[in-house]
Design a protein that fits this description.
Blueprint (H helix, E strand, L loop, with lengths): L1 E7 L3 H12 L5 E3 L18 E2 L8 E2 H15 L2 E3 L2 E6 L5 E6 L12 E8 L3 E3 L7 H4 L4 E2 L2 H4 L9 E5 L3 H11 L4 E6 L8 H8 L4 E5 L1 E8 L7 E8 L5 E5 L2 E4 L3 E3 L30 E3 L11 H28 L3 H9 L14
Parallel strand pairs: 1-2, 1-8, 2-5, 8-19, 10-17, 11-12, 11-17, 12-13
Antiparallel strand pairs: 3-4, 6-7, 7-8, 9-18, 14-15, 15-16
Bound molecules: flavin-adenine dinucleotide.
Subunit structure: Homodimer.
EC number: 1.8.1.9
Keywords: Disulfide bond, FAD, Flavoprotein, NADP, Oxidoreductase, Redox-active center
Length: 356
């Protein structure tokens, strides 16, 4: 199969890109994944309950919001394929890619597909600690996103715990202090990895207690269906001593893994594996390949910012494809053809990516 635009990923970034590309008559094909990275089609929002900060919806279930986005992209004309992209070759154009028949652990299908442009919206996965009780109380106290969930009524005027020692952990803990009674921050080592300013803000905040050399051990709570968490057993890593502390909420701030394994060695990435894009435009280091959403954003990681960058990536892809048309329609002369093959398919006068 050959497509003008292929979108990989099915979170808010992927579906927004699909809506824009479909409305521009680009006939996009969106691969929503079959439990890619262990996340259902629809992305991270399918793992949360209430979303209260997506404009237009005062309160909506994460899964429902994503179902509605999917419906909208399909109605606009997107072809949605429930498979995971297993392999991609971005070295020459048209780009080539292959699929897993079903889940990530399945063999790769031999059939080769091609695309003129690719929008990467594969997202990221918040790291979990696999503490006992985590699955039981996930969404009922345990979360991986304070900015997303910290304002929920269940956390107001409550004692909360954040685990992590970097700048994200500090920012998440400070965010929680606005509504919580108390925030305890568990730091595995004897110091924070945050900037000095952030560290000072945290350690001097009247609602915050930082416990260095401490880890979480066991999450406890109500023993009924959808029961809330109520406490956390913690351990002093130096003395081995354990204690139980009051905790209505537990927020992991131990990092995210961007879904970029497919693109290693092909696209520029930062030291944490996030795709590097040109700020505000979604252009990656390869012309014709765009990225949107959490896969290229380690700072904000919100549904609305992902949707916004999905729109940008689709508009950039549309413009870029249009810029290619004269070369295709008018036919390139032999000299240009030779130059094109030597420049990885990029004809200099049609170059729109200033990074190249
Ligand atoms: C528990 C939790 C609660 C949250 N709550 C909120 C909230 O209330 N408000 C808010 O604004 N944000 C919230 N967020 C953050 C928000 O979910 C993310 O910022 C947003 O979903 C990122 O969107 P995305 O489009 O970049 O990708 P993602 O949502 O990460 O989706 C990417 C999708 O692509 C699929 N995929 C990956 N690789 C492939 C492949 N090779 N082939 C095909 N498919 C693939 C993945 O399986 C996944 O389904 C929350 C996050 C979490 C974890």
């Amino acid at each position: 199969m050959h497509s003008k635009v292929v979108i990989i990923g099915s979170g808010p970034a992927g579906h927004t890109a699909a809506i824009y590309a479909a409305r521009a008559d680009l006939n996009p094909v969106l691969y929503e994944g079959f439990l890619a990275l262990g996340i259902a089609a629809g992305g991270q929002l399918t793992t949360t309950d209430e979303v209260e900060n997506y404009p237009g919806f005062k309160k909506i279930q994460g899964g429902k919001l994503m179902d509605q986005m999917r419906e909208q992209s399909e109605e606009c004309g997107t072809e949605i394929v429930s498979q995971t992209v297993a392999k991609i070759d971005l070295k020459t154009r048209p780009f080539k890619y292959w699929l897993h028949p079903m889940g990530d652990d399945e063999e790769i299908e031999p059939e080769e597909h091609t695309a003129d442009s690719v929008i990467i919206a594969t997202g990221a996965k918040a790291r979990r600690l696999d503490l006992p009780g985590e699955t039981q109380y996930w969404g009922n106290g345990v979360s991986a996103c304070a900015v997303c969930d910290g304002s929920l009524p269940m956390f107001r005027d409550q004692s909360l715990v954040v685990i992590g020692g970097g700048d994200s952990a500090v920012e998440e803990a400070l965010y929680l202090t606005k509504k919580a009674k108390k925030v305890t921050v568990l730091v595995r080592r004897d110091k924070l990895r945050a900037s000095r300013t952030n560290a000072r803000r945290l350690t001097t905040h009247p609602k915050v207690e930082v416990k260095f050399n401490h880890s979480g051990v066991l999450i406890k709570g109500e023993e009924k269906k959808n029961g809330l968490m109520s406490s956390l057993v913690i351990k002093n890593n130096v003395t081995g001593e354990e204690q139980e502390i009051e905790a209505r909420g537990l927020f992991y701030a131990v990092g995210h893994d961007p879904a970029t394994t497919l693109f290693k060695g092909q696209l520029d990435m930062d030291e944490d594996g996030y795709l590097i894009t040109q700020a505000g435009r979604g252009l990656t280091s390869v012309e014709g390949v765009f990225a949107a959403g959490d896969v290229q954003d380690k700072r904000y990681r919100q549904a609305i910012t992902s949707a916004g960058s999905g729109c940008v990536a689709a508009l950039e892809a549309e413009k870029w494809l249009m810029d290619q048309e004269p070369a295709v329609e008018n036919g390139l002369d032999a000299e240009n053809q030779a130059e094109k093959s030597q420049t990885n398919g990029v004809v200099p006068e049609y170059r729109s990516n200033p990074l190249l």
